[in-house]
Amino acid sequence: MNILQSTTTKLGNRINLFGQKQNGENILIIGVFHGDEPQGQHLIDKYLSSKHYLQTKNNLLFIPCLNPDGLQNKTRTNANGVDLNRNFPTKNWGGDTSSAGDNPQDYYGGKSAASELETQFVTDIIEKYKPKIILTLHAPYKIVNYDGPAKDIAKKISNIIGYPVEASIGYPTPGSFGTYCGVERNIPTITLELDEKIPVAQLEQPVFEIFDMLKN
């Protein structure tokens, strides 16, 4: 798989978009929005090394790690202390996130909407590649959350991994990626919240099956 696009973060780490240029719809899969949720990068890297992505009807595009600075620092936020999943230029950006957790600073949406290079990298990719479906890998809630016209896809994913389908994460998420893509752009967007209490290797089989379902 080729690097289609890349950028360098504040701490000098690389964010890469992997994919192949071929016919078919684009499906975008993103790992590690939050640096303390590393499961997505492991699963995407393992999937790519297995060559599962070959012979696809749809084009799978992967960002294995959107927040390498947060991963390096083991923080939810990026190097600027911004929660990338609150930084998207939505109509509700900058709203109250006080009910989201015990540490409000972990949910800081940035000095302005789309202020972060990581956010800009993703929004540029969405404009350029116009994905038909978007899947993001998070932890730890063990649910299949969806935004936009994605309920049917969410049910298929639920059938594979055994997590319940939830239209709401349970607390306000102003400036979220799901609102930006799913609600405001009508792109079926799935937030797959993985189990963080089990070895990530145990997630490989169901998550690979989900990727394979999306590519066909």
Entry keywords:
216 residues, alpha/beta, Aminopeptidase, 6-stranded mixed sheet, two-stranded antiparallel ribbon, 6 helices, 8 strands, globular
Structural class: alpha/beta
Major sheet details: 6 strands, mixed
Helix content: 25-40%
Query: Unreliable runs, pLDDT <50, ≥5 residues?
Result: none
Whole-number tally of structural domains: 1
Number of DSSP strand runs: 8
Give me the CATH fold name.
Aminopeptidase
Individual helix count = 6
- End-to-end separation: 18 Å
Radius of gyration: 16 Å
* Share of β-strand residues: 15-25%
Mean pLDDT over the full residue set = 92
Overall form: globular
What top-tier CATH class fits best? Alpha Beta
User: Strands of the largest sheet, in order across it?
Assistant: 4-3-5-8-6-7
Q: Can you say what the CATH homologous superfamily is?
A: Zn peptidases
Describe the structure.
It is a single chain. It is globular, with a radius of gyration of 16 Å. The strands form 2 sheets. It has a 6-stranded mixed sheet. α4 (151-161) runs antiparallel to α6. Helix content is 29%, strand content 19%. The longest helix is centred in the middle third of the chain and has 13 residues, at 117-129. It starts with a strand and ends with a helix. The protein has one domain (2-208): 3-Layer(aba) Sandwich (Aminopeptidase), CATH 3.40.630.10. The protein is built from 6 helices and 8 strands, in the order βββαβααββαβαβα.
